[in-house]
Specification:
Layout lengths: L2 H38 L26 H16 L7 E7 L4 E6 L4 E6 L5 E6 L1 H9 L2 H7 L4 H36 L1
Antiparallel strand pairs: 1-2, 2-3, 3-4
C-alpha cells in the first residue's frame, strides 16, 4: 500500500471515529456546553444565575456575631421567608470578611441567605441557579438521582474528557491531513 493510500485510510478512520463519537455523545456535549456557557456568565448575570454578594457593616471580625448565632438566623430566615418545608442542612458557609457578610448555602434547595456578619441583619435571600448548573455540568445531578455515590460522575467526566481529547486530535488531523496530502502531491 502506497504512502498516499495509508494517509487516506488514516483520514477515513479518524473521520469515522470523529463522527461516531460525536453522534453518540451529542446530548452530553450539548448540556456541558450550555451549562458551561451560563456558568461563565454567572457573575455578570445581575444576580440571576448567582446572587450578588452584598456588603455588610464592618470587615472587623471582632465585631461579628458568633457563627452559631448567624446560623440560627439564616435557618429561621429560610423557613420563614422561603418555605418551612425546606431542609436546613448547610452545604457551606461562605464568609466574606472584606464585604462584611456571610453566605449560608443550603444543600437541597439551592438557596442562600446572606447576613451582615456584625448585626445578623438579612442582606439577601437568593436562589443559586449556578449550583444547579454546576450539577448539570459535572454530572452530579444524575449521580444524585441514581444514588451512585460519585461513580456516575467519575465515569461521566472521564468519558467526556477523553472524548474531548479524541475530538481535538481527530479534528486537528481532519484539518491537517488533507493539507499534508496536497503538499506531498505537489512535491
Amino acid at each position: 500500500m502506497g504512502k498516499r493510500k495509508k494517509q487516506a485510510k488514516v483520514l477515513r478512520i479518524f473521520r469515522k471515529v470523529h463522527r461516531t463519537t460525536g453522534a453518540l455523545l451529542f446530548i452530553f456535549f450539548f448540556f456541558i456546553s450550555i451549562s458551561g456557557l451560563l456558568l461563565g456568565w454567572k457573575k455578570n448575570s445581575n444576580g440571576y444565575i448567582l446572587p450578588e454578594t452584598q456588603k455588610g457593616t464592618t470587615a472587623d471580625l471582632k465585631q461579628w456575631l458568633p457563627v452559631d448565632s448567624l446560623h440560627t438566623i439564616a435557618c429561621s430566615t429560610l423557613h420563614s421567608e422561603v418555605s418551612p418545608d425546606l431542609s436546613l442542612e448547610i452545604d457551606r458557609i461562605d464568609m466574606r470578611k472584606e464585604k462584611g457578610s456571610v453566605k449560608f448555602v443550603f444543600v437541597d434547595s439551592f438557596y442562600e441567605i446572606q447576613l451582615d456578619g456584625a448585626t445578623g441583619n438579612v442582606l439577601s435571600i437568593g436562589k443559586r441557579r449556578s449550583d444547579f448548573l454546576e450539577n448539570i455540568h459535572d454530572g452530579s445531578l444524575v449521580d444524585d438521582y441514581l444514588g451512585s455515590e460519585g461513580y456516575f460522575k467519575l465515569i461521566y467526566t472521564s468519558v467526556m474528557g477523553i472524548s474531548l481529547l479524541i475530538f481535538t486530535i481527530t479534528g486537528f488531523w481532519l484539518w491537517y491531513g488533507p493539507k499534508r496530502m496536497r503538499k506531498a502531491n505537489k512535491a
